[in-house]
Structures are given as C-alpha cells and as structure tokens.
Amino acid sequence: MLVNLSIQNYALIDDVSVSFSNGFTTITGETGAGKSILLGGLSLVLGKRADLSSLKNKEQKCVIEAEFDVSKYQLKPFFEENDLDYEKTTILRREILPSGKSRAFVNDSPVTLDVMRALGDQLVDVHSQHQTMQLTDNDFQMKVLDALADNSGNLSGYAHELQKLRIASKELQKLEDFQSNADKEHDYNSFLLKELEDAKLKEGMQEELEEEYEQLSNVEQIMGQLSAGHQLLNDEQLGIVGRLTDLKRALQGLSDFGAEYKSLYERIQSVLIETDDIASELEQLEEGVEANPERLEVVNGQLQQLYDLQKKHQTDSVKELIDIREGLSQKVDEVANIESKIKEKQEEVETITKKVDTWAKKISEGRQAVIPTLNERLQKNLSSLGMPSATFKIEVNLSKTFKTNGKDDLVFLFSANKGSSYGELKKVASGGELSRIMLTIKSILAEYENLPTMMFDEIDTGVSGEISNRMGEIMQQMSNTMQVFSITHLPQVASKGRYQFKVYKEEGAEGTSTHIKQLSTDERVRELAEMLGGKTLSESALAHAKELLQ
C-alpha cells in the first residue's frame, strides 16, 4: 500500500509531500493542473526512465520518494533474492542529478533500475489511458484467463521444461549439422591423423634426430679430431699427460715447505687427474665412432618426414604437430560416435517434449474451464455499464507450436450490439467501450492478483451520467481488498472515493507551481459542484454535489 509520496524539483512541482490511506482515493483538478505530473513522478520511482527535462530547476537534483507498507504481501523472497534489507515499511527513492545521471535506492541500498522496476511492478499497477490498448493484445487476454485459472504453478513448470527443451533442441541441431558437414571431412581427417600417428611423434624428438644426423654426417671429421686430441694428450715425448706427470714430480718435494707450495702441488695433481680422465674418454669416443650410412639414411628420412608435416600443417615444432594430432583424433572419434550421440539426444528431446506437452495441456484445460465464468462476469458487469448487449466469443485451441505462455491459440472476439457480428476488440470496440471493458477486467483480476495498489488514470474518459456512477462503484468495490486511486474529471467517480485530493496550480514571483491537498467534506462539496456546473456555484450544483457524497 502506498503510504506517502514525496516529490522535489520535478516538472512544475517544487516540493510536495502527501500521505495516503487504504481504500478508494480520487484525485481531481482542472485540465493542466498537473495530475499527470503527479503520476509521472510516481512512475519514476517505480522504475521508469528519466531525463533532464524532468527537473524544474536544472541546477538542483530531483528527488522522489515513495513509502509503501508491504507487511501483508509476500515480498520477503524478492528482497532476499536481490540482497536487500527487508523492511515492513519500504522506501523507494529516485534521484535525478543535474548532470543527467539517475540513481535508485530501496531502503537506502543502491539498486539498478531493473530491480526497482521489478519491485515496482509488484507494488503498483498503473493504468494510463494508452494502456487500454493492452486489452486488444493477445498476451494480456491470455494473462486474464491464467489469473482466473490460477495457472501460475502450471506456467512455471511449463517455462522450466520449455527452457530445457530449447537447450536440448539446439544441442541436437548442432550434432546434426556437425554430422552433415563431418561426413565430407571425415576421410580427409582420418588420412591426416594416420600420417601423424605413423610419425610416432614425441616432444624433443626433432632435436635428438638433428643432433644424430650431424654426428652421422661428419664421422670422418669427428674421428680425426678425436684422434688428434688423444695424440696431444698421450704422445710419449710431448704428450700433455706425460709432461704434467713430470711437473708433478718436480714440485712434489716443495709441498713440505709451506701451505702455498702444498696448495700448488695439489692443484697440479687435480689437473693431472682431470687430464688423464679426458684422455681416457677421448679414447673411448674414438673407438665408438664408426660410419653407419644405413642409420644416416633412416635419420634423414625421419627428419624429412617431420619437415614435410610441419610445412603441411604450417607449424614450427613437434609439439604443435602433437596438438594437431590430438585435435584430429578427437574429430575422428566424434564422427565415429555421432550416430549414437544423435540418437541419445533425440530421445532426450522426445522425453522433454512430452513433459512440456503435459504442462501445456494442464494450462489449456485450466483456461477452458474458466471461460464460461469470465464470459458471464464480463457480460453482467458490462450490462450495468450501459452495454447490455455486449457479448464475447472466447476459445482456446491447442496448436502445434510451443509459445512462451503455453501451446494455445486464443480467439477473443467481441460484439457490442445484438445481431452484430463478432470481431477483434481493436476493430469493433470504441474508446469508451474499451475503457469499460478494461475496468471490468481489472476488477475481476483484482480478486485473483495479490497487488497492493492499483491506480487508474482517467479510465472513465468517454463516459458520463449513470455509467460513470457505476464505474465509480466498481472501483469502490475493488478498494475493499486493495488500495485504489482514480485520477478523474467526473464528479460521479470522484464522489465515490473515501478520500479526495485536489491538484492545483499557483502562480508566484518565481513562476508556476503544482500543489496537491486532501479535501475536507466542505471542500469536496465545493469541488464536486464546480465539476458539475463550473466556477459559478449554483444552489442546484451544490445540492447535487452533497447528494453525490451521500
């Protein structure tokens, strides 16, 4: 329930704060006084987008606050889901800065506009004049049937399974597309894979083969240099090993004459040991080197195969070839198993489709069951609104297509006069008739939707007299279970409110400002009399106004 609305620096409003109660509240005022401005301010705090034109003073920010009593409504899960503090008295605040930026808050916590809009949709149903055309929309018509049929649970189950079906169907389509394209590539991929598998690739093999190739290709040079090295080390007269041995003997006797001589002797001994070891290793290497043209041919062939594969696959390393091999192996395996995967996915799609169909059938049965009740209530209420011959032709038929709200095709036709043929609402109903039909439907929906507040913006446009009186009574009845506002030009409707507010303009030194105030009983009589007979108040107009309030 809307408890208080505060608006600062918005359009023609400087600073307005107004408190509301439950029941039926009417808002009146002359054309251009600013009733739509009040509704615009409320719409902003419910999540509507704003711009700088909303600011009255372009150098100051616009602040709009709406306080709601949400204690009787099951909104705590929404607050928890959006990580917001739940308060029984919840405040929505919207700020529009001179820079054009907008900020939104719920109980002083910053929120996105989407979150504010989602919460606002659960707090207030604002019905403006242009929204009457919603009545001609098939989705809205279906929503009415679903509300009466209490289809929310069925629609939730249907939506859950439909989402699963769409995902599974996309996966099946991908598999089928893959199969149609893969058949063409399978043989070629298998050929490429066999080439790479035959190469017996492993990381580091290219470096090992290139090293072996260099050795096998230069056997004579290696043998000559090893032999020369061995000769230098082991020559009987000039060999390095022999000369170091002589040096060791020459200095052996000095090791007892001081630490530095001993250290020098030990270093010579170490050099001799290392040199002798090198001489032995050179000898072993020399004995192990031999020409092997057959092995050279094999290594050359393996290297050439690697180079050819790298060129073919446009790579620079064996590791990249291994990655390509693994990728090709996966593709070949996928094609080999694609038939079984497609069959498995088809069975999954079929199973989910049956579940979606089951939910769709429940939804359709619920809709069909409430059509007679909806028809009867529409015709009864419209008869009291001056449309005694209004009849509807409402049918739901299962189609072959899954839609977001079920599997039904809806026929919602209208005839205003006896003997007239049925037609679509937007084609055969006048503006005044649409307003009356919409009010009737909203009054029915109010019994099924747990909405705290409903606001009608001149829904009584195009009607007058007894019909407007009856429209006021319908809104008055709706207010028994919810808070109802009506912005109206009709005294018959205005008089039905438990409370009446007047929106008016005042001109001051700094310009024109819009204000709103709650009217006392005497002020209501005067306001209603002016609405009936104009500014010049006659006794008959005042008497009629008093009669309306009674």
Explain how this protein is built.
It holds the Pfam family SMC_N. May be involved in recombinational repair of damaged DNA. This is DNA repair protein RecN. This protein has a six-stranded antiparallel beta sheet. It is elongated and about 150 Å long. A hairpin with a 5-residue loop joins strand 5 and strand 6. Helix 11 packs across helix 13. With 550 residues, the protein is of the alpha/beta class. The longest helix is centred in the middle third of the chain and has 67 residues. Helices cover 55% and strands 19% of the residues.
SSE blueprint and pairings:
Elements: E1 2-10, E2 13-19, E3 24-28, H1 35-45, E4 62-69, H2 76-81, E5 89-96, E6 102-106, E7 109-111, H3 113-121, E8 124-127, H4 138-149, H5 152-198, H6 205-217, H7 219-234, H8 240-252, H9 259-288, H10 293-312, H11 318-384, E9 391-403, E10 406-415, E11 423-424, H12 425-428, H13 431-445, E12 453-457, H14 465-478, E13 483-487, H15 491-494, E14 499-508, E15 511-518, H16 521-533, H17 539-549
Parallel strand pairs: 3-13, 3-14, 8-12, 12-13
Antiparallel strand pairs: 1-2, 1-4, 4-5, 5-6, 6-7, 9-10, 10-11, 14-15
Helix pairs in contact: 4-11, 5-11, 6-10, 7-9, 8-9, 11-13, 13-14, 16-17
Family: Belongs to the RecN family.
Keywords: ATP-binding, Coiled coil, DNA damage, DNA repair, Nucleotide-binding
InterPro entries: DNA_recomb/repair_RecN, P-loop_NTPase, RecF/RecN/SMC_N
